[in-house]
Amino acid sequence: MQIINNTRNDLLKRNEISYLVESEKNPSFDEMKKKVSEQVGKPEENIDVYNIKGNFGSKEFKINAKVYDSKEDLEKSKMKTKKQRDAEKKADGEAAKDVEEEKPVDARAPSEDKPEQVAQEDKPEEEAKAVKEEEQVKEETKEK
C-alpha cells in the first residue's frame, strides 16, 4: 500500500489520503477501511473510504479515503440522502405536533359561509346570459 497524496483539511478536521494498492481482485471498502486504520493509527469509525478505482486488466487500484479526527466530525460532513433528510423532518415534525396542539386557521381556506362553486350543468346557461347582456350593452352604446 503506497501513499500517493496526503492532504490536511483543517476546516473539516480531516486528512484526505490517496493510496495505490496492488491486489489480485477488487478490494472491498471494509478491507480498505481496516488497512487504512492500521496504517494511520485511527479507529475504523473515523475513516470514510469513498472511492476505489481500477483499470481493466491492471492489478493496481487507486483508493481515496478521508480520515477524520473524531466520529462526530465524520457525521457532520457526511452527505445525507433525501430519505434520511425526510425521516429527520418527519421526526422533528412529530415533536413539534406534541408541543403545538391547535393548528392556526388558514386564511386562504374556503369558509363555510361562502357558497360552493356553481355546478358544471349551470355554467353554459350563465355564459349564454353573459353573452346576451354584452350584446345589449353594445346595442345601447350604438344608439347613443
Q: Overview of this structure, please?
A:
A 4-stranded antiparallel sheet has the order 1-2-4-3. The chain is elongated. The protein is about 40% helix and about 25% strand. The termini are far apart. The protein has a domain at about 1-75: Alpha-Beta Plaits. The model has no long low-confidence stretch (mean pLDDT about 80). The chain is α+β, with helices and mostly antiparallel strands.
Helix content: 40-55%
CATH topology of the domain at 2-77: Alpha-Beta Plaits
Low-confidence spans? none
CATH superfamily of the domain at 2-77: RRM (RNA recognition motif) domain
Task: Give the class-level CATH name of the domain at 2-77.
Answer: Alpha Beta
Total beta strands:
4
Structural class: alpha+beta
The description of the largest β-sheet is:
4 strands, antiparallel
Helices and strands, in N-to-C order? Answer: EEHEEHHH
**Helical segment tally?**
4
Radius of gyration: 34 Å
Task: Describe this structure in a few short sentences.
It contains four helices and four strands; from the N terminus they run ββαββααα.
Task: List the topology elements.
Elements (H helix, E strand, L loop, with lengths): L1 E8 L4 E9 L6 H12 L6 E8 L5 E9 L2 H7 L4 H18 L23 H21 L1
Antiparallel strand pairs: 1-2, 2-4, 3-4
